[in-house]
Amino acid sequence: MCAKWAGEYDVKLLLQELEVSRKRNEDTGEFEGFEGWNPFEDVTAVLHSCVKFAHDMTETDRSRIIYRSVLALGRVDDMTSDALIAEINRREGAFQELDERRFVLATSISIRPPNPLRNTSVSGHRITFGRYLPKRFATEHEKARELGRRDIFGEPPKWWSMFNGYSPVRVSVRARSISAAYEQSIGALDLLRGIWNLRLNKAARTSMGKRKPVNVLHLGPIHSLHEPDGRLATESYWYDPGYVEPLKNLNLHNAQDELRDFEKLVRKYLSKSQYRQDIEGAITRYTRILDSREWNSAFVQLWSLLEYLTDTTNAPNDTTVKRALFFWHRDERDFHRQVLKHLMKYRNRTVHAGFAPEDIETSLYQLKRYVERVLLFHVFSAPDFASIGEVAEMMQLPLADMSILRRRRWLMDRALKYHS
Question: Where exactly are the structural domains of the chain?
Fold first, then answer.
């Protein structure tokens, strides 16, 4: 397998634009770069959508390959699409040949210290909790926290604070690059946190004062990546641009067993799922969406998640409503149809007219209820289905008239009997 052009773009035209800005040394004729940042920046950005890579890589790693391939192409006499895709393939192949090595992500989670939870593994990545980070990790992570203070709006949480203190957590992964290590580690942590939030998030809430995220469990605002011995693996760090202040932490000393039992149950069913990756991705999306204090943005993204779970991303909104109603008893269905129609119209006004009503919190929690109902069905019924699309076929059945369903079952039974 090798990288290919997507076929939707005129790569030749893009390279012609780049050719105009190519700069050569007047004496030697050697390539020195591209004049003017805009042509180079525009072309490399668009090329990111032009290429279908053969292997799964992070956005950062793909961008780096494209960036370096374009610079290499500048040294070639004829800048052609064939020459560029060949260079991209060469660099993609070299990346895949890199040995995976171990990294450790250090961050924090809004559990009241000392964190009583036991260590675990998610997606093959070891997650370690504790009252403190090991000394070398703590020293190096503090460097990232100091640098990160300039990028966040509020002070990061203290380890020791009783009500707002966050507990440290480490995630050990093996990856070929810094960006891959970060995405794998934060993905494993968010999947675990997403399962927990599915259990812990409240059904409804009326807030006063500052807007707060829906999620009960949050990550700290600054994350650092380390070598196994604790040294920083990179001077870069990652931070939450929406962070404002520490949120109230969660005391799990009396609730850890119940939380772990729910987690074990979810993971048991996920291990049997035929489309596990899709559902785990949906759980991760769920918790990342509800981390936001921007409730209108969270609402729109949550509706998009409902479309994904009902396989209606490219279908009319009323199809999303119809399929979401499948999971409610027929005696409740008429009521929930009214609520979902209201949410559908609210979503459309928000997207197309920038509508932002005062009762957004109520609407967000209403929508969360439907997303959770469909998401948990996928989790606990996944062993019976091959894909989200297959579940969607069931959602599309005419529930208003049970006699139609019985008639269809009768016909299918007869057909199977005839052909068996």
Answer: 4-96, 101-272, 294-405
